[in-house]
Amino acid sequence: MGGVTMAVGSEGADICIVGAGVMGTSIAYQLAIRKAGRIVVCDQGSVGEGMSGRSSALIRMHYTFREEVQLAVLSLRMFRDWVEITGGQPVFHPAPFVRLVHPDETEKLRQNVAMQRECGAHVELIDRPTLAGMAPGWAVEEVILAAYEPDSGYGSGGQVAADLLARARELGVTYRAGARVLGLRRSGDQVTGVDTSRGPIAADLVICATGVWSKPLLRAAGWDPPIETEFHHVALVRRPGREPGDGLACIDSVTRTYFRPDVPGTTLVGSFYGPRGADPDNFPQRASEADLARLVEAASQRVPGLAEGGIAGSVTGVYDMTPDTRPLIGPVPGLPGCMAVMGFSGMGFKISPAVGVAVAEMVCQGVASTVDLRPFRPERFAEGRPIQPEGEYRDDLNTAR
Ligand SMILES: Cc1cc2nc3c(=O)[nH]c(=O)nc-3n(C[C@H](O)[C@H](O)[C@H](O)COP(=O)(O)OP(=O)(O)OC[C@H]3O[C@@H](n4cnc5c(N)ncnc54)[C@H](O)[C@@H]3O)c2cc1C
After folding, report:
1. What integer pLDDT is reported at residue 2 of this predicted model?
2. Radius of gyration (Cα) for the chain, nearest Å?
3. Which residue out of 41, 52, 73, 320 has the highest number of ligand 1 atoms within 8 Å of its CB and is therefore the one to mutate?
4. β-sheet bridge partners, residue 39
5. Domain 75-154+228-321, what fold?
6. Confidence category of residue 400, pLDDT binned at 50, 70, 90
7. With 70 as the cut, is the pLDDT of residue 7 above it?
8. What CATH number does the domain located at 3-53+158-226+325-398 have?
9. pLDDT tens digits for range 13-31
């Protein structure tokens, strides 16, 4: 154990996981408990320092695609059982969740809630008077129905990655921080390991959980993942007085914002959209005052009290967007020995525990049995078969989180 002390250049593994964000660490942990062999996790930086550590970390189950709901339902359970699973501190902060859609999509909301309940989600439809009673400070005049998840909340991407890696290392996984993967090693088409800034690692299977950094790495190996980067900023707004609705989290199609409670007296506010083409190694570390003011103005159409709070801070980050805003999970086309787990399009945190379970099943048993991962196969776009759920909302292609 203790990969950081291993002699550089002498490393061999059955499985090398590139990336120590919530995805790479979750997969490492799940493979370790299945005794899948010698596992090395390497990261160019340190655990959770990628986009996981910048995540708004909303945990909710409202999706329009069944397999995503299934991943979210299982993950919520795991977040709530975190102490038991990882031995770490609790990571789950309760914040009942409300999904608001355009009034003309109320029927879709109803259908999606029915589907989510079939998947085991604890979700209810509530009408406007009920919502107004829960959140008297919100402007809800146009709402016909809302989806309400009493058991949802938020977490911390940095903590989740750190806890899962710590547990994986206790189970024998080797971790190499500061090891940037420069390229995939090949024998013909077969991937046989990686070359890192700290020496080569031979491996029978390389799992790329490399988030927004995936494209150059894979493209150099011959596969161009359909991923575009998208810049996002989040505002932390001071709340002068506490109102009953302040404990709720919400995604709101009408204002195209999302918000949730943060540290006491503060609300975190984010938006659906952002400019494409951000450089993950060189993006603004702070949002501009004008951008933050616009964001808070939009959210205050729903929660007027937000307009009275000052900005306490901001967070910026980059999403790895795919054309259908769903992840790429599975063997990389044309590169046997390499698996992609990337493209989470701004929604990966909340499903990361279950993605680890399902990917580990795929590796160990050849097929993911807990949740069917086949719809997420990386080649679906080349096949002309993107994910298009029936109940998709019209702004779904950019409502990540
Ligand atoms: C501002 C913001 C808000 C968000 N809000 C939410 C939310 O509310 N709910 C939600 O579910 N999701 C949210 N997300 C999305 C979620 O955070 C991500 O989908 C998730 O963290 C992705 O995890 P990951 O492990 O794939 O990527 P990362 O955490 O970015 O991990 C990838 C790792 O790979 C490493 N790496 C990359 N290339 C190499 C290489 N060549 N060699 C070695 N190491 C490499 C990086 O250093 C990094 O540590 C948000 C994201 C952002 C940016």
Report:
1. 32
2. 21
3. 52
4. 15
5. D-Amino Acid Oxidase; Chain A, domain 2 (3.30.9)
6. very low
7. no
8. 3.50.50.60
9. 999 999 999 999 999 999 9
In angstroms, the CA 336 to CA 320 distance is 23
pTM of structure = 0.96
Residue ID of nearest Cα to ligand 1 atom 32:
210
Q: Which residues of 96-120 are buried (b: 16+ CB within 10 A; e: fewer)?
A: bbbbbbbeebeebbeebbebbeebe
CA–centroid distance, 320 to ligand 1, in Å, is 8
Q: What is the rounded average pLDDT for all residues in the chain? A: 94
Ligand 1 pocket check for 93: Cβ under 6 Å: no
236 lines ligand 1 (CB under 6 A): no
Region 93-109: what's the mean pLDDT?
A: 97
Q: What local confidence, expressed as pLDDT, does residue 16 receive?
A: 98
- Sign of torsion over alpha carbons 78, 81, 87, 88: positive
Please give the structure tokens belonging to residue 212: 């927004």
What are the residue boundaries of the structural domains of the chain, listed by start? 3-53+158-226+325-398, 75-154+228-321
Tokens standing for 394?
């019209």
Q: What are phi and psi of 57, to 5 degrees?
A: 60, 30
Distance 270 CA to ligand 1 centre (A): 16
What does residue 303 show for φ and ψ, rounded to 5 degrees?
-120, 85
Angle at 100 between CA 395 and CA 374, to 5 degrees: 55
Tokens, residue 305? 């009290």
CA of 98 to the centre of ligand 1 (A): 25
Between the CA of 351 and the centroid of ligand 1 the distance, in Å, is: 12
Does ligand 1 come within 6 angstroms of the Cβ of 353? Answer: no
